[in-house]
Write a structure and sequence with these properties.
With 149 residues, this protein is α+β, with helices and mostly antiparallel strands. It has helices at 20-35, 116-134; strands at residues 56-70, 76-92, 96-105.
């Protein structure tokens, strides 16, 4: 067993694993979720220095995971909430991606009724902190920070 290990980066030629046409179609569908769909609240949440919105796309999801007990003839005898989840998986700009997930486990799950809109709102609320990582010097559409004195 070595006491010291050195790691060295060895660059390799990139290899395309999906056709470019397919990735363009999927990206457009994800951007539509923000521009026209269930994550509309994120429209213009990230704005570049040039005043143009940074492309943001994703997929929303809401889960109400239940344990159901059925009787004879398919009659529902009981049902209890096991978990409640809200998620937003996203791509931001050309190089960034992530996931926002809210999860509540039983016994508290039954008391919550949130949807994936909560996950989208969390990302929107985090946009001022994330934007400098995406585009240094940019400002958010929600509220631009004041310049330093």
């Amino acid at each position: 067993t070595p006491y010291e290990t050195h790691f060295e980066y060895r660059a390799t030629a990139p290899q395309r694993v999906l056709p470019a046409e397919l990735t363009r179609i999927v990206r457009r569908a994800l951007v539509d979720v923000v521009e026209e769909g269930t994550a509309r609240r994120l429209t213009r949440a990230f704005v570049g220095r040039d005043g143009q919105p940074i492309a943001l796309g994703g997929k929303t999801g809401t889960g109400d995971h239940r344990f159901d007990v059925y009787g004879k003839g398919g009659l529902l005898i009981s049902s209890r909430a096991v978990d409640r989840t809200a998620s937003f998986v996203f791509v931001l700009g050309e190089r960034h991606f992530g996931t926002v997930m809210i999860h509540v486990h039983e016994p508290d799950a039954a008391r919550y009724r949130f949807t994936s809109a909560l996950a989208a709102q969390v990302l929107k609320s985090l946009s001022p902190a994330l934007l400098p990582l995406v585009e240094p010097g940019a400002c958010t559409g929600a509220s631009a920070p004041s310049p330093a004195p």
